[in-house]
Amino acid sequence: xxxxxxxxxxxxxxxxxxxxxxxxxxxxxxxxxxxxxxxxxxxxxxxxxxxxxxxxxxxxxxxxxxxxxxxxxxxxxxxxxxxxxxxxxxxxxxxxxxxxxxxxxxxxxxxxxxxxxxxxxxxxxxxxxxxxxxxxxxxxxxxxxxxxxxxxxxxxxxxxxxxxxxxxxxxxxxxxxx
Length: 178
Description:
The protein has strands at residues 19-27, 40-48, 63-66, 69-74, 77-79, 82-91, 94-95, 108-113, 119-122, 138-144, 149-159, 162-174. The chain has 178 residues and is mainly beta. The model is unreliable at 1-13 and 27-32 (pLDDT under 50).
């Protein structure tokens, strides 16, 4: 029997002491052997016993601070239309120009719609070693939001041999879709 590898929650993520976890696992056709050639995302809800009090969603922001890095978001989510988002990474006020590849890219963007957790896993434009894509400070993504509403965005990037996750809350405007 052949084992299929998976990309998953980054190794630096931590489970809460109590509450709920909604886990997503990606099986990507270009990285994994999937018989019908289609990408797959499997989801599971996991409950961690204990007294759980849901936290309010963080306020909308175009800047995230994580592990001494500042990440800024430029661009807008527009439902039903392709959008371009550029995330720029700085540290101590200086652009980070030596990002390291993480799972074959300089960044991975996970987009979750609040309410139903509709999920997008977006790879950046370009790839390490293609002779065009710079290793920072900018990481550009293109995708389409399925509907208007509030979304959480999580950018994973690697620098200094560690993976960092910057989180944003943004609204998608436009026509309501699926």
